[in-house]
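[Meeting: bench + compute handoff]

Bench side (C.D.) handed over the final construct sequence. Compute side (W.E.) agreed to return the predicted structure before the next meeting so the bench team could plan truncations. Sequence as handed over:
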Amino acid sequence: MSLLREFRRDLLIAAAGLLGLLALGLLIEHAWPRDFLTAIFAYGLLAMSLNLLIGFTGLVSFGHAAFFAFGGYSFGLLLQSQGFTEGLGGFAVPVAFVAAVLGTSLYALMIGAICVRLSEIYFAFLTLAFQMFLYSLIISWVDLTGGDQGLMGGIPRPEFLGINLHDQYHRFTVCAILFVVCLVILRIVTQSPFGFTLRMIRDNPERAGFLGVNVFRVKLICFVVASAMASVGGVILALFTSGAYPEWAFWAQSGEAIFMIMLGGLNVFFGPLLGAVLLRILNDTVQSYTTHQEIVIGIVILVVVLGLRRGILDFIRDWWVERQQARLAQEARKEDTASSILRQPMRRDKVQ
């Protein structure tokens, strides 16, 4: 029953959040809020899907951006195919979206079946190796992917269900809905019994195995779900930029996603999203003053990590918990003092 109440509460919060995003993007005439939020939708999903592996399962992946790029390229290539768009007509965009997510999930299933058998540093570097393989394939297969120039000529945006993706308001609305739906899915996964199984595997995989949990299968399912959510971020960015670029599959993109998690916090659900917002703002601000943005961003992340010893939301949550515990302990001491005072006269009477 409590899970049902939490689910309803999360749906209400998601609906309110979606309305707030649409208000920001549609009611403000300046294009910057829409562009900024759309970028946050894409990179926020990349970071939050990666945190499903890192924060909830204990699987540190250095190659998660491969699925981000795979989704964006799959979506773009399908829509660039004239036979595909003409054959499906008004259903080309939704079919391309579903095909991109399913294709990424299948790709993740094959890679995950190899990677999740390993642990810690071996898992991390094997995922990085697969990502760099995809990056090399994108760079070398010029006829298909455009090489280092990315998908040339833009991505067609045929109208579907009365939605014109060439219109910036329609496009922003679609991206916002996809983003919120994926957040709800991630929230359901983390708050479900499956999510608590992930935490148990993170804390002690041997004990989870002794309790009858199929650790390999659970990790593999988590890997595929996280990859599918990352692919949606790639689709959103492909819609936003009308293209797909090899930088999305480069190791630095996965590194940025890890920075987002470190900056925002990995133990709070919205921590990676806060990290994505802060890193994006920091990136845009630093670029306007200097070309050495990597140095400045690295210093900021070092200050946050070494100063707070955790992400920002993790620090705030721990501070709040400690404050509540201190208040409860103080109230308990007051109650003990009051009860001891009340008991003292009774003891005197017995002595007399």
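W.E. noted at the follow-up: Confidence is low (pLDDT under 50) at residues 347-352. C.D. will use this when planning the next construct.
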